[in-house]
Amino acid sequence: MENFGFQILQALITDLDPDQRVKQAMNEINSSKRLKEAIAEQAEGAKILQVKSAEAEAESKYLSGVGVAKQRRAIVDGLRGSIVDFSSGVEGTSAKDVMDLLLLSQYFDMLKDTAGDPNCKTVFIPSSKSLGDETRNALLQAESGK
């Protein structure tokens, strides 16, 4: 336009219309970027879920262990009290007699629970030794194996 005395410094383009193939290619590029970001976010979400699940399971196992420890402590305290009460209440008995009685009562409780379970597949084999001796020996062997 300079030949006619006009100089164009700027031009405002309001309607750019590239070829249809160019538009489709640009849309595919944009779509691929968005899909790639979505997949990354989805994987990150799955990772967070897995980590949180593992943390919850670890906390659950810890609390279960604390509960078992408290239960065992209560059992030991109860047994200690029973032994002291029984030994002082019945003359001529020792702590060993009380422990034998407790083991025997636990044995009968286990038999009752096992017999009451219709799905039980347990077989009991009689022995020539006394139950208290067998149980005590088994406990001592288990303790020495640790």
Automatic annotation (TrEMBL):
The lineage of its organism: Eukaryota, Sar, Stramenopiles, Ochrophyta, Bolidophyceae. InterPro entries: Band7/mec-2_domain. It comes from the Eukaryota. This is Band 7 domain-containing protein.
